[in-house]
Amino acid sequence: MSLLNSIGRDIKAARERDPAATSNLEVILAYPGFHAVQCHRLAHALHQRRVPLLPRLISHFVRLFTGIEIHPGAIIGEGFFIDHGMGVVIGETAEIGDNCHLYQGVTLGGTSTKREKRHPTLEDDVEVGAGAKLIGAITVGKHASIGAGSVVVTNVPANATVVGVPGHIVAYRDPGSDTVLHLPDPEWDRITELEQRLEKVIERLRSLEERPTNTPNRKSPRRRASAPTDEGTASE
User: Fold this and answer.
1) Predicted confidence (pLDDT) per residue in 50-105, tens digit
2) CA dihedral sign, ordered 75, 163, 86, 14
3) Which terminus, N or C, of the chain has the lesser number of Cβ atoms within 10 Å?
4) How many CB atoms lie within 10 A of CB 77?
5) What does the CA dihedral 14, 18, 21, 24 come to, rounded to 10 degrees?
6) How many independent structural domains does the chain possess?
7) Which 3 state secondary structure label does DSSP give 46?
């Protein structure tokens, strides 16, 4: 695909996924995610040609101006959109398919220090919510959704929705009928149960506080008559 077609798909992705985008010119001039992706495509081309230092310098200056850090070695498909973008980090061996969508604060990071595949792979049409962390050489299947703030360290099947720390699957989307099948969530069920028990305890305490006390008032003891003193006796 030509460079102009690639840029056009990125602009179209921003217009389709961000209701705030009012024109192509606005995306080109005022969207840091768009700027970061286009500069990455240049840095990646230089990186593939083994040009020394320059690709990393491009990545470095793009991070200064956009707050988005993409290693020149990362492979990114067409129609990629980074929404807002501040704090996004994409590692060297990360691979991102077509029509993927990342929000601010997303990390596609690695844990290994070896020169090997150590960053996530996102297949086509994956959406990753704000602040999510995807760590290691995992694969996220097509049309999967990662909830905001999730930490994902294992593979995610296609059409799945993952939330939580650590991330776990809570739903599947049927691409044929576009329906969502919600799965049982043991952690959420446990939290709900604890909340219900806490409410019962609070109600019990309130009922005890409002119950009138039946303890009778004790009468103060009578004061004994004082013994007569010498001054009080009749004089002889």
Assistant:
1) 999 999 999 999 999 999 999 999 999 999 999 988 999 999 999 999 999 999 99
2) positive
3) C
4) 17
5) 20
6) 1
7) helix
Token pair listed for 52:
């020394």
**69 has which bridge partners?**
89
Burial of 160 (0-12, 13-18, 19+ CB in 10 A): buried
* Residue among 117, 110, 122 at smallest CA distance from 158: 122
Residue 153 in domain: yes
Instruction: Return the higher-pLDDT residue of 74 and 184.
Output: 74
Q: pTM higher than 0.90, yes or no?
A: no
What distance in Å separates the CA atoms of residue 38 and residue 27, rounded to the nearest whole number?
Answer: 12
- CB of 74 closer than 8 Å to CB of 96: yes
Query: What does the alpha-carbon distance between residue 137 and residue 213 come to, in Å, rounded to a whole number?
Result: 67
- Quickly tell me which residue has 């299947």 as its tokens: 141
Question: Domain for residue 104, yes or no?
Answer: yes
